[in-house]
Amino acid sequence: MLALANLDFEYELAAPAEGEPATLPHQFSKRWRWILRLLPRARQAECLDPTFSDLSAPTAQRSVQELVVWGVTPRTTRLAESLGLAQNFPVVDLVRQVNDKRFSHTLEQQLSIALPHSQIIESLEQFRSAVETCPHNWVLKHPLGFSARERVVGKGHRISDSAWGWARRKLGQHWTLLFEPWVDQRQDFSLHFQIDRSGAIRFIGQSQLVSDPGGVYRGNSFDPSLAPEPSALECGHRVARQLARLGYWGPVGIDAFFGMLGDRPVSRPLVEINARCSFGRLALALRDWIPQDWCHLWWHPGPAHPQIPPPPPLPDTPTKPGLYSLPLAVDPPQTSGTLLFVAPTRRRLCQMKASLDETGQENTRQVKAD
Questions:
Q1: Which member of 23, 102, 209, 307 has the lowest number of beta carbons within 10 Å of its beta carbon?
Q2: How many CA atoms lie within 13 A of 289 on its CB side?
Q3: How far apart are CA 128 and CA 114, in angstroms?
Q4: What's the angle, vertex CA 125, arms to CA 123 and CA 130, rounded to 5?
């Protein structure tokens, strides 16, 4: 089995057909090379270097029974074709369609669950009008952006020069954009499904999303005592059934949240669809390394956080709460820089994270004092 963690998935899907995609930095891609081994079916997979410019070259002469990828793109399709495995994946155009935020926005409208004032933006004039009529802070998103990339945010009825310039560039590239009101005090989570080629749908589980104050993704947590909210789960199944009817099969993550829109609580069971693998899905796969009924937090420290000495890798079965690195099987050089908090209760998990945050803040103050 071969595995390819092509984390530049959205970048490639967003690239013009005649051009080369803008890729994530090579160092970022390389450090996650083995990450798909978290999936049970890929534990022993040989992991390809995702920065190869021609992925078919090193594999053309091999006999490979299965290929596991982060997401289906033109490049991974060419690789699958070179291995005689193209039939194992849905077509790229469909994958691009269902990952597009405009697609999920249309589904929200059909289900009558779209946020007020949210709309597709097709011109600068429409952008200005949306900001002027929206009584909340707002965000304008590229339809294939991810993790707070390819978006701009604004406060009130003001559009900054940088936001206006960004919108003008994207609209000039013949994209339409998604405008939404900004929701505060969010509790973000994701529901994960697997759609078989037959159309059968299996619910994998729910993970909580951890973001920094700017809305940038920083990790996922899992608490077995937290059951999915019934209406969110039902919405997730409806979305998965729609994808299956269109002919998509494979992994699906559906981002959702609870929060406050002004002074009104809101529930948004469909923020966007990730028809690919995801860190949330892999965070659920970490359950195989952790005692049953324990909690864990997979945390990706931000660049502003002080350097933390790498803790020991997570053993096959940890017997005590602690701070760990990823298992050796999925991070052999131990260079991912991410941390795993493991504890029998959510309260203990939060205490461990708070203690590390306090230590980091003290280290930062000490560095500034020196």
A1: 307
A2: 30
A3: 20
A4: 95
**Tens digit of pLDDT for each residue in 228-273?**
999 999 999 999 999 999 999 999 999 999 999 999 999 999 999 9
Alpha helix (H) residue ranges in 17-133:
26-31, 74-82, 92-99, 101-110, 124-133
SS3 assignment, position 325: strand
By three-state DSSP, how is residue 323 classified?
Answer: strand
Three-state DSSP class for 260? strand
Please tell me the distance from the alpha carbon of residue 365 to that of residue 354, in angstroms, as a whole number. 17
User: Which alpha helices (H) appear in the chain, and where do they start and end?
Assistant: 9-14, 26-31, 74-82, 92-99, 101-110, 124-133, 161-172, 230-246, 279-285, 346-369
Residue type, 202: R
Q: Which amino acid is at 104?
A: S
Measured from the Cβ of residue 105, the count of other Cβ atoms closer than 10 Å reads 23
Return left, alpha or beta for 168; rule: phi > 0 is left, psi -120 to 50 is alpha, else beta: alpha
180-203 residue pLDDT tens? 999 998 899 999 999 999 999 999
Residue 341 and residue 297 in contact, taking contact as beta carbons nearer than 8 Å:
yes
Nearest alpha-carbon partner for 176 in 235, 122, 125: 122
Contact 55, 78 (CB under 8 A): yes
Q: Is 85 helix (H, G, I), strand (E, B) or coil?
A: coil
E strand segments, 300-361:
322-324, 339-343
Average pLDDT per block of 10 residues along the chain, 370 residues long: 92 71 67 94 92 59 84 93 91 96 96 96 97 97 84 95 96 95 92 97 96 81 94 97 97 96 94 96 95 93 75 87 94 91 94 80 41
Q: How far apart are CA 328 and CA 281, in angstroms?
A: 19
Write down all domains in the chain, each with its CATH number in brackets: 2-89 (no CATH), 116-182 (3.30.1490.20), 185-343 (3.30.470)
pTM score above 0.70? yes
Residue 195 β-bridge partners: 201, 250
